[in-house]
Fold each of these.
Amino acid sequence: MQQWQDYFKSNEKRFMDELFAFLRIPSVSAKKEHQQDMHTCAEYVKTLLSNAGIDDIKIFQTKGHPIVFGQKEIDPNKPTVLIYGHYDVQPADPLGLWQTPPFEPVIRDGKIFARGAVDDKGQIFAQIKAFEIMNRTNTLNANVKFLIEGEEEVGSTHLAEFLTKEAKLLRNDVVVVSDTSIMGLDTPSIEVSLRGLCYFEIELTGPNKDLHSGVFGGAAPNPIQILCKILASLHDYNNHITIPGFYDGVQQLTDEEKSNLNSIPFNEDAYKKSIGVTTLWGEKGYSVFERTGTRPTLEINGIWGGYIEDGSKTVLPSKAYAKISCRLVHKQSAENICELVKNYLRTIAPPQVTLNVKRLGGLGDPYYMDSKHPAFIAGTKAMEKTFGKKVFATRGGGSIPIVIDFERILGSKTLLLGFGLDSNALHSPNEHFNLACYEKAIETIPYFFKFFTEK
Amino acid sequence: MQQWQDYFKSNEKRFMDELFAFLRIPSVSAKKEHQQDMHTCAEYVKTLLSNAGIDDIKIFQTKGHPIVFGQKEIDPNKPTVLIYGHYDVQPADPLGLWQTPPFEPVIRDGKIFARGAVDDKGQIFAQIKAFEIMNRTNTLNANVKFLIEGEEEVGSTHLAEFLTKEAKLLRNDVVVVSDTSIMGLDTPSIEVSLRGLCYFEIELTGPNKDLHSGVFGGAAPNPIQILCKILASLHDYNNHITIPGFYDGVQQLTDEEKSNLNSIPFNEDAYKKSIGVTTLWGEKGYSVFERTGTRPTLEINGIWGGYIEDGSKTVLPSKAYAKISCRLVHKQSAENICELVKNYLRTIAPPQVTLNVKRLGGLGDPYYMDSKHPAFIAGTKAMEKTFGKKVFATRGGGSIPIVIDFERILGSKTLLLGFGLDSNALHSPNEHFNLACYEKAIETIPYFFKFFTEK
């Protein structure tokens, strides 16, 4: 709409100044020394909302970092959209790898470089500005609530409790989150599902102390070797997971879903080159998108035991450890898989070792949004409008546990209307947000509101 | 012999004072700050040899720590015995775990406590004093050479070079080393073989950087998982090593050897209890002594990769590492096995990863002394005489590379006439030497000379 574009053009410079000011606040939630910055940043989010025309704003203190909530109700009979985002960012280290300092935003090669540029300050900022545009041009036709937390990068520790306590305040028809990526500017896309997650640490104890590998080698059990045997046995020759019952409930894609997913442009050579391998890996019988988006995995995230310093030491170690995690898909239950994996590991551990498995971190169930959901349809139409391209429904391989909490606690489905790119160096040095993506976000979001509220 | 006993009794107190003075010198070869102590200690060894009646003594400087050599030739037609030992000791840390300071020797519960008490100051001291007894009682009937180095605990770095250069000076009929253990005071024993050693570090690279296990999990190769598969495949269900050709040349024991080895008193329950396991491990078809002494092994000494700190991180790592070593037995060649293992690992690594194997440390061939060797027979008879018990020919599981150098460079067989106990806390806090073992050493060695030189 012309008036949206006009408003943006007239305010573009001010928007960028406000975004830069937002990015300059080192709101690193993981680090104690930034505690004051977290409060400063929450206050700044309040200012941003206020500037955009939200008048009912409150900062909720938690045992962790503050949560900012703001809303604008225009008509109780109109639909309510809850926008979720976060103002906290990942630690910036290793600092030496940044081309320019992480908290001194700059535009270079058409990209905004700064910690938080895309994850998630830049994206939640685009949401706030899209609201401002609709509000100031009197085209807002939905009630809007903003929920912007400061603990996403440390596991959203206090958010579920907040959702439960403030469920009434947060009531909505759909949640919209701009914290994911599109496939590319030529291939806009919306993630229709996310994988769930469960994470374990395994401790295997053999002898009660480190032994001399000469004196005892050949007769004493080596826990590293037994751990390797156990972990190696969890995938068969076709890379199917061997744990009985693991795939129970996992749904095969319909022919249509399969054909849609595999119609997404994909250059396998470029994919391999980007990760530096000559041969891909994975479960026999599935394409790359099926493997990463629709199939559960069991991954070894870390392993250690014995002598791991420089040089050699002829030790037969007492202990070996591994961290493993499962990504879960629609209809799998994180709780069930967690118990299944723990019990199976106990079953296969041989009598020479003592096995201890503990769960690490929270459980995350998989998330799935039907592509016939009105918000998904509206999001797709909005992107088609502004990108001028077919919009693909993709399957996210990652996990955003809070999305499951929105469903579980608030009964809300979430539209993952993200505008990042996988190449944006999220969580890494030189994080950036393409200006083109930033502008597309501000342009697209009002169309989402338009299509979502149209009868 | 009565005169040996009389001499010992008359000089017992002085001997102990000299040993304590020896133990008070902190001759830690691994630590730069003890460089001066190494020289002090070498001088003290010279004094000890001189006091014992060796007049031809020389301290050879090396690029590392000095080597002390001394000899007494009584008759060029008589056999020459080269006594090898070392005056350097392991670092004493962790100091907090010592009941009394490591370099302040004390006698407690019939044991001499000090760093180096048994490894190897106490044992080489017993050799020197046994020589003194024979010399002062005019019962010495062999030429004796002492080779006492200061770098055994750091890999005898400069000794092979010295052996090559001074081969003529070191010429002998047999080498005797007192740096090993007996099974117990009731079960005297001599190790008739030592295992060889080769050591590798494996680096497996999958993706060119750490990846997000959600975004890429299921399609990108995980080097930890592949490393586990590779390592797990190196032993079959019966714990035989699967590398083709690995066992080539390994000799099966004769019925007599087998029966001798398995007649050594062994309490499996006590063995299991001492290492804290309920079930032993090992190659099917072999007893514990056969497994640790007569069969080659492939042991994983260390493994690491991915996230190994506290908590969870959903990383699909770029790299995984392991340190592995093989203990080798008679007729295996360390050089051949080294190449065999490296090539086999390269063969089985799948195309998804890049494998890099490097050799760590020196190679050690296995050592074997025929139990019909005159020195072995003499050592056995000597122990039988002084312990009053059957002497067992045991198979050492560990490796003493210098023994191979004596064979390779000097053409000499080595008799491992040790008097320690496996419980002596070698290389650990509260290292000690039982007084009973110390006295048995001084009592036994002259009998070895007697029987070895008897026609």
Amino acid sequence: MKVSVFIATSLDGFIARPDGSLDWLPGSEDGEGGAEGEDHGWTAFWDSVDCLILGRKSFEKVLELAPGAWPYEGTRVIVLSSTRTTVPEALTGKIELRAPDPAALVEELRAEGHKRLYVDGGATIQAFLHRGLITDMTITLIPVLIGEGIPLFGPLAEDIPLKHIKSESFPSGLVQLLYEISRQ
Amino acid sequence: MKVSVFIATSLDGFIARPDGSLDWLPGSEDGEGGAEGEDHGWTAFWDSVDCLILGRKSFEKVLELAPGAWPYEGTRVIVLSSTRTTVPEALTGKIELRAPDPAALVEELRAEGHKRLYVDGGATIQAFLHRGLITDMTITLIPVLIGEGIPLFGPLAEDIPLKHIKSESFPSGLVQLLYEISRQ
């Protein structure tokens, strides 16, 4: 089973501004664009995912960005939160709310026959990385420095060696990197 | 005149461990190797440089790593320091010690006809970037996460948009990115 990250960062390693804002992403409402029409492998990746594990803040960002819509229809979604206990009524039955226990969750989903988990959200990705649970990361580098924000990576107990699988650059200036991580 | 950065970072954006250690770099004495024999464009880059601007800590790291040797023979070297007032006797005449004033220094070197400055050292790179003085950055991503250390990038007064020029990956797993920065 793959446990995957698929995310965009500024060249200085941020996934969002300090307030969660994504206006620096090309193609965002406020952004400069230039990457429209480029798929960056998202469709193929998403088609391979059978369970999305989403951090609470990212979940709330999705609700904020697309109120009333639910972009993950048809895919199992598990939201991890230590604090939140309810979900919006419209999403009842569409998401599962769980307290974070990354290792146990990965084992459970493996036993249930899942093939590829997609882990999203800054703190959530860090928690899974820290526990050696991530098997591959697709990182799309946006050609901008934003100076501060929510970092993709954080402190680790020990170095994590990566295996570079491929890189691809796009006409818009985005560079996409794929790394695999061997289980320690 | 180009004002260039040419540096390696871990995928999580560090140029050294907190204590300045570089043991995670492939080919370092303590490192795992795997990139030996790959030049990564260093020779061509260095041949294009007519002045190296080095931060004080990086200068001292060079002295520590290669005691008695001076790897920059034949190229003008300016060491920036707010605190250091003397240089080792063996280096008298080989380096110029200056108080940091990036913008004035760049103008002075431009007026003197320099073609390409190479800015090195974490705090020094950040100071030049912050003032909009860097024209291009070659960043070699090492396939490892080290969790903490001295970051390449730091806070900025405003976003710095970059122009992606090219990317190249090497058999060892290193990925080299070249970005240009337009003068604001």
